Amino acid sequence: MESVRFDAEMAERRKRLNAPALAALNSGGPLVDGSGNVVGVVSAKLDAIKMAENQGDLPQNVNFAVKGALAASFLDANQIAYDTGTFGEKLEPADLAERAKKASAFITCR
């Protein structure tokens, strides 16, 4: 039953995405929609080896992102200003990357 509770918690707070381009170094980066709006924050990658050991199958490209609403709640609670986007024209990958760079900042925790 613990795995059911874990799955329910994950579904409430995180999006699951299948994106081969995501790497461990992307954790904390923006997840953007086709218009370049931030819809989440990349947060984790499924441990494929552990899944293979436990389930007998090797999953590929299974990653997770904190949902945008949860990220917005965090920003609101810490009085950090942000703009709200709207769905618009679909952007080319290079334009999406440029927009994602603008939504990114390097943060160091002490």
Overall mean pLDDT score?
Answer: 76
Seen as an oligomer or otherwise, the chain set is: single chain
**Backbone CA Rg:** 16 Å
The helix/strand series, from N terminus to C terminus, equals HEEEHEHH
How is the largest sheet built, in terms of strand order? 1-4-3-2
**Uncertain segments of ≥5 residues (pLDDT<50)?**
1-6
Query: Count the strands?
Result: 4
Cα-to-Cα separation, first versus last residue: 37 Å
Shape call? globular
Structural class: alpha+beta
Number of domains: 1
The helical percent reads 25-40%
Q: Summarize the main sheet.
A: 4 strands, antiparallel
Please count the helical segments: 4
Strand content: 15-25%
Textual characterization of the structure:
With 110 residues, this protein is of the alpha+beta class. The chain has one domain. The protein is built from four helices and four strands, in the order αβββαβαα. The chain has a four-stranded antiparallel sheet with strand order 1-4-3-2. The longest helix has 12 residues, at 2-13. The termini are far apart. InterPro entries: Peptidase_S1_PA (IPR009003), Peptidase_S1_PA_chymotrypsin (IPR043504).
